[in-house]
Design brief:
mainly alpha, 3 helices, membrane
Length: 179
């Protein structure tokens, strides 16, 4: 009976050990599956890190020098612009100022021309080399002046010729007029 009690006790203990072993086996199985899941997550993370590392290396060796070159070119261009832009701006301002001044001078000359008397404008158009009128108007006025001058010269020539003839024939003025 002692033996039976010891056997019962041992069998109870064996059943308890068996239950603990099954429980331990299920925990071990669950831990193993968790380990596998964590391992696969670590592998994915490791693969992602390696991929990102390769991209970073590629960027470091190819894109960063290109970016540095581009930055250097941009810096040089900005330096050149910093030196030339003020000159260009002052040159443009000077050109605009000069054109405005020339336009103002032209307008003043036009107003002065329009405010002069007719006789003065007529005299300047005929006798000045560069009057402020068109070439056609200048030619027309000079042509009219030449015709008028020739007519006046002809009238004076005829008058002087008649006076000389009257003097030569000893005609008295008023007694008989020559025709």
């Amino acid at each position: 009976s002692k033996l039976e009690a010891a056997l019962k006790k041992m069998s109870k203990q064996a059943a308890q050990y068996e239950f603990q072993m099954k429980e331990l086996e299920s925990q071990l199985s669950q831990s193993l599956s968790n380990f596998r899941a964590i391992d696969s997550l670590f592998k994915e993370a490791s693969t992602g890190i390696k991929r990102n590392y390769k991209r970073a290396e590629r960027a470091l060796h190819s894109q960063i020098p290109a970016i540095e070159t581009s930055l250097d070119e941009s810096y040089n261009t900005l330096s050149e612009l910093a030196q030339t832009l003020p000159k260009i701006r002052t040159k443009d301002i000077r050109v605009v100022y000069d054109s405005g001044r020339e336009k103002a001078q032209s307008l003043v000359m036009d107003l002065t021309w329009l405010n002069t008397s007719f006789h003065e404008r007529w005299r300047r158009t005929i006798f000045m080399p560069n009057p402020p009128v068109s070439g056609r108007w200048k030619a027309f006025m000079r042509f009219l002046f030449a015709i008028s001058f020739l007519l006046c010269c002809t009238v004076v020539w005829v008058g002087l010729g008649g006076a000389y003839r009257a003097y030569r024939h000893k005609l008295v003025w008023g007694e008989r007029l020559m025709s």
